[in-house]
Amino acid sequence: MHKRALGAAAVTGVAALALSACGGSSPTTPSNTGAAGTSKATTSGTPETPSGTAAPVRDANVDLVIWTDADRSKAVQKYADQFAAENGVTVKVQISTDTRAQFKDATKVGKGPDVIVGAHDWLGELVQNSTVAPVNLSPDVAAKFLPSAIAATKFNGQSYGVPYAIENIGLMYNKDLVPNPPKTMDELVATGEKLVKEGKAKQVLSQFVSKVGNAYFAYPYLSAFPEGGIFATKSNGDYDPNKLIVNSAGSVKGGEELAKLGAAKVLSTNVDDTNQDALFDTKAAPFMISGPWSVAKAKDAGINYGIAPLPSLTGGGAMQPFLGVQMFYVSSKAKNAALAQEFVTNYIPRKDVQLALFEVGKRPPALKEAYDQVAATDPDVKAWYEAGLGGKPMPNIPAMNSVWGPFGQATADIIAGKAGAKERLDAAAKEIAANIAKG
């Protein structure tokens, strides 16, 4: 998965699965550190950049501190400046490179930021560690967002953030080689093998697998079958950490599909984040399963690409990807909770803010009005959104941290033919259950 999509804990278990962030820096001198309420209070005007691996250092004189990654820092800074000017307060934006871990540590000692920008799947862990506060988004404002985006901000029925983007994987295809996208995996394989035989391609499909596996990319194969997946869901739609289904009958069928594709050399553990894009961008593979983060490289390579939903699997249905939602959180120990809530609930839901953040990563905006505007002129955004229809938000429960490594490795072993699907998924289920029990 792309480096921004999951949290740091997931990266460790999935070996460069690809996700998000916070780092160290030397404190800069703000242009004005006046107290809240002074008419000339402002921000430093430039995001504070990290120069090492330590967490950003909070200036105790600043009213509102926001941690974000480097990509979004300029957009966040622009609106932080506006917020500071309109409210007569000081605001500092700090670039962090390991937000998930360092926010927890800094908050425990009262030196953390007031607001952070991060992935929704961090939520359960942040709530468990008592580091984030519920966000008071009014029902009428919440209704202005895409339902899947709002759903991802909730944990145990309580909302903890305001979303600004949605991302998911889909099927990218070379339109010069494949004018119309395949509807089924069987069709994809047949088309790809024909192109390889004709010398127009070197392999059928480029998909991140790696030697240690990639749970994010493997999950859709399980989701195509009834009751296939990772965790069952409760009656209210929440994931149930007590009902692991990675070795359910449906999941095993998905595993068998992975085994079949591995045996046919359609999927390979030799493909990972170091070469996945290159295989598609050099026309070695006519198909690639990836996300919005791969578009810029394809454009630079001059590929005439298309974007479509993931194909369906024989005996099952359409492969459904996880949805990743990016959002703004409020710290449970914010220096000025009311100020932090004001910024997150009244600024982030604005269309201009959502559009500015969209320009950074080109992910479909979470706000309906912003999405509709972008989708009307950007076919890629519309295609990515449609590729995610029917998908569920990635589990944001703490138990998910126990899944990434064991499940990813199991799928890699199945693809490599080292073990049968049922045998390997049974073993993974035992390992994951043991990890969850350890807490």
TrEMBL record:
Residues 23-57 are annotated as: Disordered. GO terms for molecular function: carbohydrate transmembrane transporter activity; maltose binding. One of its GO terms (cellular component) is ATP-binding cassette (ABC) transporter complex, substrate-binding subunit-containing. Residues 23-54 have a biased composition (Low complexity). It comes from the Bacteria. It holds the Pfam family SBP_bac_8. Keywords: Signal, Sugar transport, Transport. PROSITE patterns: PROKAR_LIPOPROTEIN (PS51257). InterPro entries: Maltose/Cyclodextrin-bd (IPR006060), SBP (IPR006059). GO terms for biological process: maltodextrin transmembrane transport; maltose transport. Residues 1-23 form the signal peptide. Belongs to the bacterial solute-binding protein 1 family. This is Sugar ABC transporter substrate-binding protein.
